[in-house]
Amino acid sequence: MQRRHLQEIPDSGSNVTTSFTWAWDPSKTSELLLGMGVSVLQDKLANENTPQELLVCVSPPPKRQKVKDKEFVIARRPRLPREAAPGVSWDTLPDELLLGIFSYLSLVDLLKVSQVCRRWNQLSMDESLWKSLDLAGKNLLPGVIGQLLPLGVTAFRCPRSCIGNPLFKTSRLLHVQHMDLSSSTIQVGDLQSILDRCQSLQNLSLEGLKLSSDIVRKIAQNPSLIRLNLSGCSGFSTESLEAMLDSCSRLEELNLAWCDFTVDHVRTAVSHIPSAVAQLNLSGYRQNLLMSGEKHILA
């Protein structure tokens, strides 16, 4: 092996510039690497001739592909035929028998069975089950009265209740004959909407409610009225009071006590009391009666 001797490096202050080279025989590289047990790859290997293992090692690792979630499909299994249970099935009962059973249910239970199936819903709304409706002391949301009263209710008790807007879906007349809304909380317009559909009333109690002249005229549309309680009411004119008393000629019991009456109201009431009235209550107008000269009423 031939080596070239390095020239002596001059001092830094010298102006002589020197360079050196390292001489090495490239043919000896393979021999040296073979002696170390390392095989040498030839330069400029074409990509198509490169072993696949080397390409895998040299190239960057492939990106991991996201695995899409599997799509699940809910399949409904066919219903197996059930064995006939012993006894009588509810589905086989006739409508008349189911209506007889439903007639013993309370209002809450009747509303529950109406949600069982379509057939029971239709049967639970039958008019025969809604002859009497008692909602005393309840808080009735808007739309409740407008849904229940058209079902054929004839007796409706709803004293001391908070009644929302009826929201009737039909303009047909109601079948109500007995109605008690005493001491309830209801808007004048909502009360008028109810009485506007009543022409078959026989007993009516609106004790303590604020009325209007239009409401009193709606009461006059019930010629079959026998008992009327307007105790503590206010808000209507003498003309509407006169029209009501003249139209309800079959009145037997009349309570007009402690209303917001003037002398003219009292004079009108006394002058137009139906002849069939057997019980009359005009409490709270003693002074007005004396002023109007109707002393014979006090006897």
Quick rundown:
The protein is an alpha/beta fold and 299 residues long. It has helices spanning 27-35, 52-58, 95-102, 107-113, 118-124, 144-148, 188-195, 213-219, 238-247, 263-271, 286-292; strands at residues 132-134, 139-140, 155-157, 162-163, 178-180, 203-205, 227-229, 253-255, 279-281. The strands form two sheets. The protein has a seven-stranded parallel β-sheet with strand order 1-3-5-6-7-8-9, with no helix packed on it. A two-stranded parallel sheet has the order 2-4.
Main β-sheet, in a few words? 7 strands, parallel
Give the percentage of residues in beta strands. 5-15%
* Mean pLDDT over the residues: 79
- Low-confidence runs (pLDDT<50, min 5 residues)? 54-58
- The N- and C-terminal alpha carbons lie at a distance of 158 Å
Give the overall shape. elongated
The helicity comes to 25-40%
Give the strand line-up of the largest sheet.
1-3-5-6-7-8-9
- What does the radius of gyration come to? 51 Å
- The strand count comes to 9
Structural class: alpha/beta
Descriptive overview:
There is one protein chain. The protein is an alpha/beta fold and 299 residues long. The protein contains eleven helices and nine strands. The strands form two sheets. It has a seven-stranded parallel sheet, with no helix packed on it. The chain starts with 26 loop residues before the first helix and ends in a 7-residue tail after the last helix. It is elongated. Helix 8 runs parallel beside helix 9 and helix 9 packs parallel to helix 10.
